[in-house]
Amino acid sequence: HQFGHAAQAFRMETRGKESGEGIMTTSTVAMMPASRPSSIRMIATMGIVATISGVLLVLVYQGTFDIIEANKRQALEDAVFTVLPGAVDRATFAVEADGFKHLSEDAKANDVVYAGYNESGDLVGVAIMAAGQGYQDIIQILVGYDPAAQKIIGYKLLASKETPGLGDRIGKDPDFLKAFDGLDVALLPGS
Hints:
The chain is of the alpha+beta class. The protein has helices at residues 39-83, 174-178, and strands at residues 8-18, 21-31, 89-96, 99-103, 112-117, 123-133, 138-146, 151-159. Strand 7 and strand 8 form a beta hairpin.
């Protein structure tokens, strides 16, 4: 019991054969418990592991950022042509207080409208982003609108973190999506 450590003893029996005769030996071994690692060493090890993990996470994020952004742009481009049937070309406009301002491909703005044009250069419609609070998170959609007919001509779910099999049906359920086909959204006179 010296220094608070208790010695444990156990008997170990080994049996062996030597020249066909059985020999039995008995030994007593005293085992001392292994020393505990210091708290400082454990904290330092956890700190090193956390630092390495953090650096790796930052490197992966920075290494994949441009790829992820390019994929998002391509997904949006595909969605614009999905919600504007017949469109083969598009232009991006920023919504400003005094009207619309044409944007270059790499320009950014908060509120944008995508105009879709057919092969003749005629306006097919506009794609408008919309967002609203879902149960889990913000739901983002792209709506195709025909200003001449004042009807919705397409609908595409862009982002949703709703419950699979229940809340995510807004982008998959054909009956729900069909409700938007040709939906009349004409403005009332004087609006």
